[in-house]
Design brief:
Blueprint lengths: L6 H15 L6 H8 L13 H22 L6 H17 L4 H5 L7 H5 L1 H10 L4 H26 L8 H6 L6 H11 L2 H17 L5
Helix pairs in contact: 1-2, 1-3, 3-4, 4-8, 4-11, 8-11
Length: about 210
Amino acid sequence: MRTALSKEAIVQAALDVLDDQGMDGVTVRAVAQRLGVKAPALYWHVKNKQELLDEMATEIWRRATEEMLTLAAQPNWRERLRAYATIVRRALLSHRDGAKAFSGTYLTDSALLQQQESMLAEMIDAGFTLENAIRAYSLIYSFTVGFSIEEQAAIESSDDRYSLRRRAQRLDARHPLTLESGPLIFGDAAARFTDLVEVLVESIARMRAA
């Protein structure tokens, strides 16, 4: 059935293709087929694959931002940064290859940029300079995107190359520390993420009123 064309319909179809086929399957042609139209029909809304990815990333970020805005004011800046990291990771993991598709894109909706104002103001009220508030969010953001890319690569691998069993087979008694580190590096991803975010938060604390 032919779907009425709009930017919103195109973006949703692109996210559906991403979920079904992964990053490599996302093309203007594939999205057009999903919508029951020819590829040139999409060029009124997106000129090429990069613009399509930009719109997809904007929609992912819009949903994450909406969740952030529904949060009650956090009791302190640490809780705000922890919540930010958790919500961004959840948004990226909500789609197959979501973190990879999001990385390196451009947000097309200016309203999303404007909504950062209150987040920065909270940090300044807590004793951070604007520069250090940006550094804090940049650290959390960059870590979360990178962690999520690696996490999804392991989750979506078609074989056991990331398994602890296979890793152990490649080592021997001459590498006891490397062998023991396996569960710490490749164990519970959610627990490891939370732990590393906490390390970042405590490091960011040293920027406060510095």
